[in-house]
Design a protein that fits this description.
The structure is a single chain. The chain is mainly α. Strand 6 and strand 7 form a beta hairpin. The radius of gyration is 26 Å and the shape is globular. The protein is built from 23 helices and 7 strands. Helix content is 61%, strand content 5%. Helix 4 packs antiparallel against helix 5, helix 5 crosses helix 16 and helix 17 runs antiparallel to helix 19.
Length: 539
């Protein structure tokens, strides 16, 4: 395979994902509650001119470090405050993975051979064609930035193993330090297990393991210095509670809870076929995997994958996104396995992935005919148009036309099928859902009230989903039910935001000033006195 950086099909795939990211900005809003909350944190930091301590709705925000917010500020500094730049941070992070992935491949397979050259190219195709990675490309989240930092840390580990101590320590320290700024000390759980297991995958270090572990300690200390360069002044200016939260809550506090097993140990195992789709059901991957000898590169990737999976299985809180940073290891391993496959392609090899792709339109078609039987909002299922179901079915069936072709053609077809599926879903399915998940209308209503100097409060838990979208300049006060009466008495002209399961019927008496469907419920804005009349339990 030629240099993957020069392959026109690969450039077309990346250009397709870039177009998908741009179209996504037009087709959907920031999704509540995560994307809207993170944009609101960046917005409030920007308003305050405080780029050290994250804030959300007037309070220090200790749940996440500041790297994502800084990246958003970087774009706002260049282009002004806008809605589209926060939405581009994710795609740009995804594309930044390409050079890091190629560097990792060169470190793993430094000798140019047909298999190593093919593995470098296949690894990029595999990464962008994996369902879990593709799902995060257009999202404003922390996981892709953490993935980049883990890749940098692993570049440092491999560079150290290759004998370049200074460069290796710098890469390792930078990956760990910036990784802490991306998502906290969890970066250590991604990087260190495979590094500590070096005696298994790096026999060339035999007799020098004391120096190896010393270099790892130096890399960790460098990473700690980078992280503390932010954390210490942030703790000072954020106050005692914030300092305790970022030092204890992000480290020992989470470790103390990590063995509670709120989810079972095996939680991730049944998810892997979906998260790693379509490669995990592609026979060519398993055929190539059998061809892999016990090479040092294979052992390194296995240690990276398996030890990370075991580590996160031991942690009580489990979410699929926690595995995003290990996807480069899977892409490299799968790319190398596909490059080493020596068995001729068979006519049925594309059938399992095609059936996997076909499962989505089949489910949607069934849901469309029986919306009441589905565990989905009936109003959304009823509005699903027919054309994306047909288009997704065509994407799935088109894979059968490359059955029996060369492995390279099949790999490209699977990656393009994933891109096409996300394009169709984004253009055909998401718009039907947007009217019920868009915080924009309610946010604009609240912004108008703030501009009119009307005091605002929110009854119950509030995730700051309106602050950035409405460009609110003052926090919304959060009330528990016993606090409502006193707040209304203190703010007779104030209005209260509530969330109700059903639309308020005006015929029943005093009603809200505004109400709209939002995420399966109804967001309502009440005058304080009317709310007390409508809900006697708040008096």
């Amino acid at each position: 395979m030629n240099n993957p950086r020069l392959e026109r099909p690969l450039l077309a795939l990346l250009a397709g994902w870039a177009l998908c990211a741009v179209v996504s900005i037009w087709l959907r809003p920031l999704w509540p509650v995560d994307e809207t909350r993170y944009a609101s944190v960046a917005w409030e930091m920007w308003l305050r001119g405080d780029f050290l301590v994250p804030y959300v709705n007037g309070e220090p925000y200790s749940h996440k470090p500041p790297l994502l917010f800084w990246l958003i500020h970087l774009g706002w500094g260049l282009f002004g405050v806008n809605d589209w730049w926060p939405r581009l941070v994710g795609p740009l992070s995804a594309f930044a993975a390409v050079p890091l992935l190629l560097r990792l491949a060169r470190l793993l397979w430094p000798q140019p051979t047909p298999a190593s050259d093919a593995a470098r190219g296949f690894s990029v195709w595999v990464l962008f064609g994996t369902l879990l990675f593709a799902s995060f490309i257009t999202l404003t989240m922390f996981d892709l930035q953490l993935m980049l930092c883990v890749m940098a840390g692993m570049i440092g580990v491999l560079t150290l193993a290759g004998g370049r101590r200074c460069a290796g320590i710098l890469w390792l320290g930078a990956g760990i330090g910036v990784g802490v700024l991306a998502k906290g000390p969890v970066v250590l759980l991604h990087v260190l297990p495979a590094a500590v297991a070096a005696p298994w995958w790096a026999p060339q270090l035999k007799g020098r393991f004391s120096r190896w572990y010393l270099d790892l300690i130096l890399g960790v200390l460098l990473g700690a210095a980078i992280a503390l360069a932010w954390a210490l002044p942030a703790a000072h200016f954020g106050g005692e509670a914030y300092a305790r939260a970022i030092f204890w809550g992000q480290t020992a506090g989470r470790v103390a809870e990590s063995f509670a097993h709120r989810a079972p140990l095996w939680y991730y195992l049944p998810l892997l076929p979906m998260l790693l789709f379509p490669w995990i059901v592609f026979p060519g991957f398993w055929i190539g995997l059998r061809e892999l000898r016990k090479e040092h590169s294979t052992r390194f990737l296995a240690a990276w994958l398996l030890l990370t999976l075991i580590g996160f299985s031991l942690v009580s809180g489990k979410q699929a996104k926690y595995l995003v940073p290990m996807l480069p290891a899977f892409a490299l391993l799968a790319g190398y396995a596909l490059a080493r496959a020596r068995v001729a392609a068979r006519g049925w090899e594309m059938l399992p992935p095609a059936l996997g792709f076909l499962a989505v339109p089949a489910f949607l078609a069934y849901a469309r005919t029986r919306p009441a039987a589905m565990p989905l909002p009936e109003w959304w299922v009823a509005n699903i148009p027919l054309w994306p179901i047909i288009a997704l079915a065509m994407v799935a069936l088109s894979l059968l036309f490359v059955s029996g072709k060369k492995t390279a053609i099949q790999v490209r077809a699977l990656a393009f099928a994933m891109l096409a599926a996300f394009f169709v879903a984004g253009a055909g399915l998401v718009p039907a859902f947007v009217p019920y998940s868009d915080p924009g209308p309610a946010a604009r209503k609240l912004a108008a009230l703030q501009d009119a100097k009307v005091p605002l409060a929110h009854l119950g838990k509030y995730h700051a989903q309106y602050n950035f979208v409405g460009r609110l300049r003052t926090p919304i006060e959060i009330l528990d039910p016993p606090q409502v009466k006193a707040w209304v008495q203190a703010h007779p002209d104030g209005q209260v935001v509530t969330v109700a399961q059903k639309r308020h019927d005006a015929a029943t008496g005093a009603g809200p000033e505004y109400q709209a469907p939002f995420r399966g419920a109804w967001v309502q804005v009440w005058r304080g006195a009317a709310l007390l009349v409508a809900r006697p339990e708040l008096r």
